[in-house]
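Below sits our specimen:

——
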Amino acid sequence: MDEQLSRAARRLLGNARARKLLACLEGAQPGATRLVGGCVRDALMNRPVADVDAATILMPQAVIAAATGAGYKVVPTGIEHGTVTVVIDGGPVEVTTLRRDVATDGRRATVAYTNDWAEDAARRDFRLNSLYCDAGGTIHDPTGVGIADALAGRIIFVGDPATRIREDALRILRFFRFQAWYGSGEPDRAALAACAQGAALMDALSVERVWKELKRLLAAPDPGPAVQAMAASGVLARLLPEATGTGLLASLLDIETTYFLETDPMQRLMALLPRDLAVVTALAARLKLSRAEAARLEAWAGEPTRLVSWLSARAVRAGLYRMGQALWLDRVRLAWAADPEPRRVPQWRALIALASGYVAPQFPVTGEQVMAAGARRGPAVGTILAELEAWWIETDFTDDELSLAERLKALVQALG
């Protein structure tokens, strides 16, 4: 155990931003500042240390003075709660003065500063996140079990789970996200019970926070067991009432793992939803998805082509042209996940492979050419182009100029 802790501390203090931040604030008051939370957890779990956070006895203004005095930019990102962000080597380090919650409404907390590390740890979410590392490389574990939890992959709330959830209902989603990313084995029963009991509290959360957590959960290497636990506890139905079950997601995850396909949280979301344009449009609006995310979800739900594994080469070319590579992959991978027949795996893999490097043929007729053929300027030009392009696709993208000219002439006579 001692060697594991020493390796973790060396890994953590090997991070340049962490080392420079501690050196800066140690100069203001030795022993007042420690690295905290996820960076300590990740170092213990032998994972890359990315985001660096720190906790300190120093008041925010003292942190600002020390950091600016060392030449670092400081941004008061959450100064009302004692948090400032110090920019070191172009990257952010959040520094928060030790605090305890005085009151909370489930979304925001009123805090009071403290110099008691145990009080600070007691207000955090999970025991494996309530870890601190000082400048000397000592890892502090105020709950007494955070180190063991991190090494074993146990996601357990600090203190009473229901109390932690009442303080911030987003912790329900964080529990399942952490279970997906860091958990090992069955989820903690007390935590599951508290999440189920407190699920209605999520209704008061901002949808932006909800979508951010859900997307991060779905981006985990294997979110399947966590999502199944969400469904079993009733949390998924409360969060995503549109969800039709977890079976398709399980199938998609199995395909990703077996055939080394890249993971995609948006495709995983699709696997939880019906392919119903009205449903996904309403969901995108409710969760305030970005325009790109909403457009992608709606394209997948609204694209009418029936996809089967035995599509002809001609049908594949037409489908790829109409959909484009990205939508084609969304449609094919979800259709494959819904196919219960294992013998068709080679055909589905071929449909995915065909999208690699796909370059769409250039439609050879322009609006100017349509008008040159006798069509009146106006909406009729677009109608003729659309009809001609549909015919061109049906002919497998013919390059016969005479046939195109004859078809254009006929359409101009009929529609122009």
Observations:
- DSSP finds 21 helices and nine strands in the chain.
- Residues 303-353 form one domain.
- Residues 201 and 298 are 29 Å apart (CA to CA).
- The mean pLDDT is 95.
